[in-house]
Amino acid sequence: MNRKQRRALGGAARPDAPASEEQRIGQAIAMQRQGQLDAAEALYRQILRRNPRQVDALHFLGVLAAQQHDNDGAVELIRRALELNPRYADAHNNLGNVLAAMERFDESAAAYRQAIELVPGNLGARCNLGVMLRRSGQFEEAVAACQQALALDRRLPEVHLNVGKALAALDRYEEAVAAHREAIRLRPGYASAYKSLGMLLYQLNRSEEAAELFRRWLEQDPANPIARHLLAAHSGRDAPARAADDYVQELFDGMADSFDDHLRRLDYRAPELIARKIAAVLGAPARSLVVLDAGCGTGLCGPLLRPYASRLIGVDLSPRMVARARARGDYDELAVAELTAFLAARPASHDLIVSADTLIYFGDLQPVLAAAAAALRPESWLAFTVERGEGGEAAEFLLDRSGRYWHTEAYLRRELVRAGMGIETLETVDLRLEGGQPVVGFLALARKTLASAG
């Protein structure tokens, strides 16, 4: 909003005077900022019916379309605004934001650079360029873009965090740690920087430093579920039997936008491994089963399960993950819910339950496996992956410093049988990479026994 538009919101016009076009734009922008998107859209479209060449209305309506997850419509509207005013730097910046969300990284970079060329002091565009370059794996370029932003203003904790993440990806670890610590110094309660630095220290096997970091974070924010959980993971004290709901929700809500990119870089294989095992026992898909994707996340299993499903259901604790899954269009039903309670509320209603890397947030598996068995129809299937435990069979399960749980083979076999499941297979697999090394886990396929059904 420009100065004129801000003044327009002050209501200088006489009560009986019709609002000017500029005042109406200001009103629509104010509605948009307050979250009144339908009212703002109606006003923008009313303005454009009177003046189809109103550049601000086209631009901000495009931003609104992106807020409503219509990225194609957003790109079209903002580009129409830029055809009318190619020197509209903020429109170039917002176009870059939408294109980055669509993973059209080269076009996004070009839009940000155009905004910077028009206004060299445009910190927003410089910061956005750095984030986009890091997300697209252009880490050297991301560091350079962030350093250019910091040359204009070094008091930007978000930029220090972004450059820290890019430096870590380049294996420049000490510089990365320093950049993270600077972000925290500038913003002492900066949760994203604490979390990112903690995971970096974990990857560097600097667990004592990580534990101290999480202690300080918890002092800053005593109710923070991520600080609480990761302190338990690194200190070995007060470890819960399963990750708390608020930890899981906050963790995955925070990762939703970059989750698929992150897993691609880690060569994540769990959905494909499960799909191949299901195909081996079920044969050709016939769209005949009621299938539950238990811990669906962004919906990576959806396209692999859809051919088997007459009805495909997904459940996850993270609302933002579920929103991403919904955008894929593979599911007939999606729910935001805690998994054990969701299963318990749907007895004998599924032919296949799949859980790819969800039970790694459960230590004690007895409640969730019992609920899964109860939610299956007789002779129906359960397939899941977990991380393999090290250090002896007696431990059964343990909260790892990653914040995830691992399980031993003996424990898995015992709890599946206890839940009334017959084990078809329990095999060792490589689930993904971490620190360049494979994360070893188990792929389990089990069938509800007739005795249990009875």
What are the key terms here?
Rossmann fold; Serine Threonine Protein Phosphatase 5, Tetratricopeptide repeat; 454 residues; disordered N terminus; single chain; alpha/beta; 56% helix; 9 strands
Summarize the topology.
Blueprint: H1 3-9, H2 21-33, H3 37-50, H4 55-67, H5 71-84, H6 89-101, H7 105-118, H8 123-135, H9 139-152, H10 157-169, H11 173-186, H12 191-203, H13 207-220, H14 225-235, H15 245-255, H16 259-265, H17 270-282, E1 289-294, H18 302-305, E2 309-316, H19 319-328, E3 333-336, H20 339-344, E4 350-355, H21 366-375, E5 376-388, E6 397-399, E7 405-407, H22 409-418, E8 421-434, E9 437-448, H23 450-453
Parallel strand pairs: 1-2, 1-4, 2-3, 4-5, 5-7
Antiparallel strand pairs: 5-9, 6-7, 8-9
Helix pairs in contact: 1-2, 2-3, 3-4, 4-5, 5-6, 6-7, 6-8, 7-8, 8-9, 8-10, 9-10, 10-11, 10-12, 11-12, 12-13, 13-14
